[in-house]
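Appendix C reproduces, verbatim, an entry submitted by the partner laboratory led by Prof. M.T., so that reviewers can inspect both the input and the predicted structure.
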Amino acid sequence: MVAGSRQGREVNLRDALAARTEALCAVASPIGEERVLCDEVERWARGHAPVVWRVENSLVVWLDGPPGDAPPAPGAPPLLALCGHLDTVPIHADDLGRFPRREGGRIVAPGASDMKSGVAVAMELAARLPRAERFCDLVLVLYSREEGPFVENELGEVLRRHPVLTCASFAFCLEPTDNTLQLGCVGSIHATATFRGRAAHSARPWQGENAVHKAGALLAHLASLPVREAQSASLSYQEVISATRIEGGRARNVVPDRCTLNLNFRFAPDKTLEGAAAELSALVARFGGEAELTDLSPACPAFADHPMVLRLVERARVAAEPKQAWTDVARLAVAGIPAANFGPGATAQAHQVGESVEIASIERCYRMLEAFLRVR
């Protein structure tokens, strides 16, 4: 009878997490179109939390009420933030009108892995785990426009309008990590590198200057550039620069007088944003180009020795590894909130046609975070 009751509770949890993930996925929310989903989540939040703040199409859900103006008293419980974005990348044409659905123990829908399943876990923890059973106070930060440029991400505006969030002792971003604890992140800078030449007839190229050929020297350098490894808290991060777009030329018989490259610099946590930006600009200038920095996102250290990280590792028996990508843990760290990545989604599924998440993975993430949060 006891075993049967426990099995019933597990099935109910699994079904509840699957249903919540499906409900979130059923409301399409490609970047810039999050309002309807935010409305739905806000209605849920106001039924589960004493205080809910809305900023544009983002929410701060205080499960235990926000801190007061006075500094926390000695021995006060820590505040943990569970963070997740409500938006997805633009929906692939092949996915239109075909989501959500279940296939072989998976939920298939845009954003299923990145990261509506993570948001579902946060909401389910808020609904099922009362304050008396947690070692900490809890706030959910559910925000929009993560999948676009750094400056348009609404988490930045949330932190600006509500600096009390910096009282949080730690934050977990429930990004897709395959239920692995991914610490820190690499920074990301996009730059437009412009090379200028002089137009000429392609039969007499010596009368002009080929801007594409000028850019070629930089491209050859990047092709031969070795990956740089850097350490943060004994974890290794790979630093790389890639040309991701190229445009040049106005006609097939005209020597191009202009060529532009998009460069993406994924720099390691041992560099500041300002230092990485100066390095990229200098590299482009060295090869005769001009660099316009268009999107700048800082890196984040690993915080491997933080008590919250150690508690999750011990209680959830989770492995830790470096985050070889950019996430909002960096934005949180700049605001003074140490953070790490941990979520149920599959990294290989993010942004894919037919994106999916395993229902078992959602339940596993919930149970690991529940073990972390429980007093005993």
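The chain is about 30% helix and 25% strand. Additional entries are available on request from the coordinating office.
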